[in-house]
């Protein structure tokens, strides 16, 4: 069967994913995509302004089209549908036959037909290209106006303000977000937004746009007033893209939208419509979740059609409409609208809590009989959103005093009715991916006990991420029910998590293991808690790791300051900060390697690893390296490893900043910093990102204006893109944020938890991290910086120190009672270098000599 | 252990101070590599230095401690735990290393091989 899909937007792409997951035989799919790139996350479009690239926003899993055999035609607009011939014509004149056709054409921004609205530097806000053009114009503008004070208009206003422009919002209605919230909520929202420096003009009807006197344009309003601006963004609503459907005679609504039934079928059995272009039961849904639901329904219907001969045993899923409740953060202000927010249901009663000092506004809309919740508005604090939404949807009975649901807890409110325990399994918890509470609980019962695991098992939380705190709550409640104590005890010796232990060490000023064990633990310790304690001592006090009382706690790598390899020998990695090295030093490494017959390999962190050194050789080798000006690279420690860099503006034609210089600064600042796991950093000199900073724990990317800071990325086994923590920072602020970020991670992460997993399990997610690091909401910024300063101030090269101390140096020997070497370490040559011999090779060599312990 | 019926003879290894508390050292005794451990309370233990799970002579470089009632060393390669008293491997019953008797005489550590 030939399926043609027109539009590769968010919903169209979800359809492809559903179909690909169903792995239907004999299905050939062609997708016509008008835009120059495949599907991307339009919901997160604004993050383009905070540094996300088009690639970051992509919704297409790597290799998706190749794997699923779907033909994608970019830059290809469908221009006509011939229903009789079942053909689609493209703008460049090709025709394609279809058996089934899906329209997923989305909508377009409505631009009011005001004279002058087509002047240059007038924009809309829908595609990446729109934003690129807007950003370009923003560079040469001083003032920006957004026409439209709805949800999208306010998002656009934030973008305009972030570009550093004086920002105005012009709204026709008497309040902001007129569709979603009431007058009281709108008033509060307005005052909050104005406090952020955006001027709001309501009840303004733009009649004309002409040349300005002080700026490029002048808007003239019906009431005779005027406003001058350099650029304009129109965000006055959206209209379904139903032009193809109209032209081929499919039914459309009076105000647009392709008419569909409960299976997303148009009156033509072979044509479906889904997403924002579709009109169901007289309604258009301008949100992505209902669109995703349509994609699911449509995919099931298509699949059933293919398998028509097999009798359908299950009823097909159908679309039953969707609720338009939303919760969002607009310019940092939480706003939520649930159900009948405006109270239009006959007889509806209102219960209101508003506090202008605390800047919160909360309203419940209650049924005439006082028994059920019909809707709600929350502005300033939307903490109760999920619970109220659930109450409204399930129609469950309201508690006796519903006002307590929205009163602050300190005023004696009983919020137990809001608790997740009281929710039925069918309660939706992640609207982006349509996941119910029951699915999350089932995943917990099947063994998913971290947010990361829940995400991969259920998809919940992988969309906008807004539901993660709620899912965490449900996960914990279910774990408790299952008797799975949320046990983070380090080991049998310490009934504390690493984070708690860190706190005990720091607050108690504990500097040695014996004291720690006596005060907070039991037994002798083990190979789990000892290195953790050593790492915490190092992070807190940065004393010499090989001091007599510390040495016994160290894993062999830290004990010998080198990396143990499988045959019992060690490898050595001198620090090559930023990957920059002089020819003299390069030659020195070569000489040392040659002299001690070491295997050499370039690492991914732009350094050189020397393999095959025996314990007794380590001090000799390091003496030579230190004399030549090298220092420890800490490759052996759970510590800051490398700061990778590209060559940057010094040499590169495209570089915009000196990335090598910055990498050196960062590496020398944090070198040797001990952490719960190893830390990798990188600095790229421009957006081309040659240093792959977005796969690092801390990634810095140069911009025209400064530096973008990315955090919590990972390469390796579980690749994870780093996320933008803050953009366009000057050097001082950049360093301050990295200080805070690293120390916060060191304080709070679990044992052997990389920043990426730590972040995935962080309640509140990226927003919370920003609050702590950038906005200093916990008020610990200065403390974190001071702790970091202490560690940095006490840095010494561990190898230098080890060589200077005869007691320590003495420990580097293979045998306590004599010299000699381990005869079990055998090398053979391969490609001009040594490598460990295989057991068979060793046997051959030892032929005639009794082998005491034969490997199995 | 298979050493029990062999005639054992005490060998001088090193001074007590040559082994830092809660660490091990490797000694060459009669052609064998023996890992000798000293706990914080100066109790001494000796095992083969060879870790059969890793096929490498590394046990003297492991971390010592306890798991429940048993005193153990964790091999630095794949973290198998060996009982300091018996040499049994806690993670894999098929594996074991030889355990030796150790004593302290006039500040000197001696091992019976
Ligand atoms: C800035 C912004 C913020 C948003 N925030 C949220 C939010 O927080 N929450 C939320 O739920 N929703 C939000 N939305 C709405 C959400 O993005 C849409 O609901 C969703 O994208 C709809 O998906 P769709 O596939 O129906 O349409 P689209 O994503 O618009 O995709 C339609 C695609 O079809 C293509 N197309 C159209 N006609 C043709 C043709 N003839 N031939 C070929 N291709 C064609 C278009 O170019 C487009 O690529 C936001 C939208 C924007 C713009
Ligand atoms: S609600 Fe958006 S990810 Fe769950």
TrEMBL record, chain A:
GO terms for molecular function: 2 iron, 2 sulfur cluster binding; 4 iron, 4 sulfur cluster binding; flavin adenine dinucleotide binding; heme binding; metal ion binding; NADP binding; nitrite reductase activity. This is Assimilatory nitrite reductase (NAD(P)H) large subunit. Pathway: Nitrogen metabolism; nitrate reduction (assimilation). The lineage of its organism: Bacteria, Pseudomonadati, Pseudomonadota, Gammaproteobacteria, Nevskiales. It comes from the Bacteria. [4Fe-4S] cluster binds at residues 646, 652, 686, 690. Belongs to the nitrite and sulfite reductase 4Fe-4S domain family. Binds 1 siroheme per subunit. PANTHER family: NITRITE REDUCTASE (NADH) LARGE SUBUNIT. Residues 565-626 form the Nitrite/Sulfite reductase ferredoxin-like domain. GO terms for biological process: nitrate assimilation. Siroheme binds at residue 690. Its cofactor is FAD; siroheme; [4Fe-4S] cluster; [2Fe-2S] cluster. Residues 429-476 form the BFD-like [2Fe-2S]-binding domain. It holds the Pfam family Fer2_BFD. It comes from Fontimonas thermophila. Residues 325-395 form the NADH-rubredoxin oxidoreductase C-terminal domain. Residues 637-758 form the Nitrite/sulphite reductase 4Fe-4S domain. NCBIfam families: nitri_red_nirB, PRK14989.1. Residues 1-285 form the FAD/NAD(P)-binding domain. InterPro entries: BFD-like_2Fe2S-bd_dom, BFD-like_2Fe2S-bd_dom_sf, FAD/NAD-bd_sf, FAD/NAD-binding_dom, FAD/NAD-linked_Rdtase_dimer_sf, NasD-like, NiRdtase/SiRdtase_haem-b_fer, Nit/Sulf_reduc_fer-like_dom_sf. Keywords: 2Fe-2S, 4Fe-4S, FAD, Flavoprotein, Heme, Iron, Iron-sulfur, Metal-binding, Nitrate assimilation, Oxidoreductase.
TrEMBL record, chain B:
One of its GO terms (molecular function) is metal ion binding. InterPro entries: NirD, Rieske-like_NirD, Rieske_2Fe-2S, Rieske_2Fe-2S_sf. GO terms for biological process: nitrate assimilation. Residues 11-111 form the Rieske domain. Keywords: 2Fe-2S, Iron, Iron-sulfur, Metal-binding, Nitrate assimilation, Oxidoreductase. PROSITE patterns: NIRD, RIESKE. Coiled coil: none annotated. It comes from the Bacteria. This is Assimilatory nitrite reductase (NAD(P)H) small subunit.
């Amino acid at each position: 069967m030939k399926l043609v899909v027109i539009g590769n937007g968010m919903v169209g792409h979800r359809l492809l994913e559903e179909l690909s997951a169903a792995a239907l035989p004999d299905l050939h799919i062609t997708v016509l995509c008008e835009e120059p790139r495949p599907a991307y996350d339009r919901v997160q479009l604004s993050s383009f302004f905070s540094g996300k690239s088009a690639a970051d926003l992509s919704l297409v899993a790597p290799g998706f089209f190749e794997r699923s055999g779907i033909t994608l035609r970019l830059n290809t607009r469908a221009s006509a549908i011939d229903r009789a011939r079942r053909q689609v014509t493209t703008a460049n004149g090709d025709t394609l036959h279809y058996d089934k056709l899906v329209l997923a054409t989305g909508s377009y921004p409505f631009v009011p037909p005001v004279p002058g609205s087509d002047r240059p530097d007038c924009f809309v806000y829908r595609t990446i290209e729109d934003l690129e053009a807007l950003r370009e114009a923003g560079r040469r503008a001083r003032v920006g106006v957004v026409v439209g004070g709805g949800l999208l208009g306010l998002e656009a206003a934030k973008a305009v303000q972030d570009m550093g422009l004086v920002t105005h919002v012009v709204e026709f209605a008497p309040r902001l977000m007129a569709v979603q919230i009431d007058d009281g909520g709108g008033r509060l929202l307005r005052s909050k937004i104005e406090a952020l420096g955006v001027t709001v003009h309501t009840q303004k009807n733009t009649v004309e746009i002409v040349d300005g006197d002080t700026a490029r344009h002048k808007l003239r309003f019906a009431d005779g007033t005027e406003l001058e601006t350099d650029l304009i963004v129109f965000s006055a609503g959206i209209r379904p893209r139903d032009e193809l459907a109209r032209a081929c005679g499919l039914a459309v609504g009076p105000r647009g939208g392709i008419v569909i039934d409960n299976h997303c079928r148009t009156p033509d059995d072979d044509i479906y419509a889904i997403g924002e272009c579709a009109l169901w039961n007289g309604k258009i849904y301008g949100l992505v979740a209902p669109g995703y639901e349509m994609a699911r329904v449509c995919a099931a219907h298509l699949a059933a059609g293919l398998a028509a001969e097999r009798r359908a045993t299950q009823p097909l899923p159908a679309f039953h409409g969707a609720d338009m409740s939303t919760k969002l953060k607009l310019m940092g202000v939480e706003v939520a609208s649930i159900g009948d927010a405006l109270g239009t249901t006959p007889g509806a009663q209102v219960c209101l809590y508003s506090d202008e000092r605390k800047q919160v506004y909360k309203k419940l809309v209650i049924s005439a009989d006082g028994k059920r919740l019909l809707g709600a508005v929350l502005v300033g604090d939307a903490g109760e959103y999920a619970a109220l939404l659930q109450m409204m949807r399930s129609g469950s009975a309201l508690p006796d005093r519903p006002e307590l649901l929205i009163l602050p807890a300190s005023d004696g409110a009983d919020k137990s009715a809001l608790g997740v325990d009281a929710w039925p399994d069918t309660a939706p918890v992640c609207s982006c991916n349509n996941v119910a509470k029951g699915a999350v609980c089932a995943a917990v019962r099947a063994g998913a006990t971290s947010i990361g695991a829940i995400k991969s098992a259920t998809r919940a939380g992988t969309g906008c991420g807004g539901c993660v705190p709620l899912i965490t709550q449900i996960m914990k409640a279910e774990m408790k029910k299952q008797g799975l104590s949320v046990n983070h005890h380090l080991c049998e010796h310490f009934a504390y998590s690493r984070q708690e232990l860190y706190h005990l060490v720091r607050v108690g000023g504990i500097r040695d293991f014996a004291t720690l064990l006596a005060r907070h633990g039991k037994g002798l310790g083990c190979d789990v808690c000892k290195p953790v304690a050593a790492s915490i001592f190092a992070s807190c006090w940065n004393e010499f790791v090989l001091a007599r009382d510390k040495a016994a706690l160290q894993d062999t790598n830290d004990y010998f300051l080198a990396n143990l390899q499988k045959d019992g020998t060690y490898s050595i990695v001198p620090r090559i900060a930023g990957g920059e090295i002089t020819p003299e030093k390069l030659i020195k490494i070569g000489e040392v390697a040659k002299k001690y017959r070491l295997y050499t390999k370039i690492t991914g962190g732009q350094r050189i690893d020397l393999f095959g050194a025996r314990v007794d050789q380590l001090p000799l080798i390091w003496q030579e390296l230190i004399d030549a000006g090298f220092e420890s690279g800490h490759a052996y420690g759970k510590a800051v490893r490398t700061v990778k860099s590209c060559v940057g503006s010094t040499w590169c034609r495209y570089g915009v900043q000196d990335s090598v210089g910055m990498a050196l600064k960062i590496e020398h600042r944090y070198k040797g910093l001990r952490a719960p796991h190893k830390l990798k950093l990188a600095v790229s000199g421009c957006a081309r990102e040659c240093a792959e900073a977005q796969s690092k724990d801390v990634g810095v990317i140069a911009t025209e204006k400064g530096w973008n800071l990315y955090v919590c990325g990972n390469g390796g086994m579980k690749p994870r893109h780093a996320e933008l923590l803050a953009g366009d920072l000057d050097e001082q602020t950049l360093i301050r944020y990295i200080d805070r970020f690293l120390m916060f991670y060191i304080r709070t992460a679990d044992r052997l938890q990389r920043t990426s997993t730590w972040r995935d399990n962080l309640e509140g997610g990226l927003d919370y991290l920003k609050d702590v690091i950038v906005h200093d909401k916990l008020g610990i910024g200065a403390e974190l910086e001071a702790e970091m300063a202490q560690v940095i101030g006490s840095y010494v090269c561990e190898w230098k120190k080890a060589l200077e101390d005869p007691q320590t140096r003495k420990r580097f020997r293979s045998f306590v009672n004599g010299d000699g070497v381990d005869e079990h370490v055998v090398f053979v040559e391969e490609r001009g270098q040594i490598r460990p011999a295989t057991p068979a090779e060793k046997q051959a060599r030892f032929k005639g000599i009794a082998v005491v312990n034969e490997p199995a | 252990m298979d050493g029990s019926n062999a005639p054992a003879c005490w060998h001088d290894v090193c001074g007590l101070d040559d082994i830092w508390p809660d660490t091990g050292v490797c000694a060459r005794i009669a052609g064998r590599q023996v890992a000798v451990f000293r706990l914080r309370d100066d109790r001494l233990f000796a095992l083969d230095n060879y870790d059969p799970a890793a096929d490498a002579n590394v046990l003297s470089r492991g971390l010592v401690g306890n798991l429940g009632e048993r005193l153990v060393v964790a091999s630095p390669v794949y973290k198998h735990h060996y009982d300091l008293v018996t040499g049994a491997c806690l993670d894999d019953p098929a594996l074991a290393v030889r355990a030796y008797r150790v004593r302290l005489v006039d500040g000197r550590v001696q091992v019976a091989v």
